[in-house]
Amino acid sequence: MADLRLLTIGVYGFTEDAFFAALEAAGVDVFCDVRRRRGLRGSRYAFANSRRLQDRLQAMGIRYLHLKDLSPAESVRELQRQADKAGGLRRGERTALCDDFVRAYAAQCLDALDAEAFVRRLGEGARAAALFCVEDNPAACHRSLLARRLAQELNLEIEHVTPCGS
Predict the structure, then answer these.
(1) Is the torsion defined by CA of 64, 76, 82, 150 positive or negative?
(2) Is 47 among the domain residues?
(3) Count of domains forming the chain
(4) Any idea of the CA torsion for 118, 8, 95, 38, to the nearest 10 degrees?
(5) Residue 123 falls within a domain, yes or no?
(6) Distance from C-alpha of 36 to C-alpha of 38, rounded to nearest angstrom
(7) How many other C-beta atoms can be found within 10 angstroms of the C-beta atom of residue 50?
(8) What are the two backbone dihedrals, phi and then psi, of residue 21, each rounded to the nearest 5 degrees?
(9) How far apart (Å, rounded) are the C-alpha atoms in residues 33 and 61?
(10) Using one digit for the tens of pLDDT, what is the confidence trace for 94-120?
């Protein structure tokens, strides 16, 4: 476990080339997609739609896992949408998650999280696992909550890979 590195990455703000270059530069060998829905609208981020993403990762020798059970349920996501609306925030403007979302996501996913079982899901020999969702700012995304819990339980550091650098 001491050899495992834990990273997070979102897609917003990256170009296709920069996204995959960042994964390669970070030495990611297991890509953990923690999105509930694995599609994005429009052409800008089409490379992050499930099939294209999986094909590219496979070509790079990066194992792909869809960990839907670690994504927030629609009811939990709705809590954040309501908080964003109440705060007058448009998509992409959020810098933190609201307390209601954090509590609900913890109850839904984190309270019963078995960190050792998570590591087993990565597969033998995993060295660098990236938790992936869409937000560019890790603090605005559930992947940061998941990463924090895993890092605490596994005694790991977290590396956030962002369009502006780690």
Answers:
(1) negative
(2) yes
(3) 1
(4) -80
(5) yes
(6) 6
(7) 15
(8) -65, -40
(9) 16
(10) 999 999 999 999 999 999 999 999 999
Backbone φ and ψ for 89, nearest 5 degrees, come out as -90, 135
* Residue 15 domain boundaries: 5-161
The answer to whether 104 and 75 are in contact (CB under 8 A) is: yes
- pTM, full prediction: 0.94
Average the pLDDT over 145-163 and give the result.
96
Strand segments, DSSP code E, in the chain are 5-9, 30-33, 63-66, 128-132, 158-161
16: in domain: yes
- Report yes or no on 166 lying in a domain: no
Read off the DSSP letter of residue 102: H
The string of pLDDT tens digits covering residues 40-70 is 778 899 999 999 999 999 999 999 999 999 9
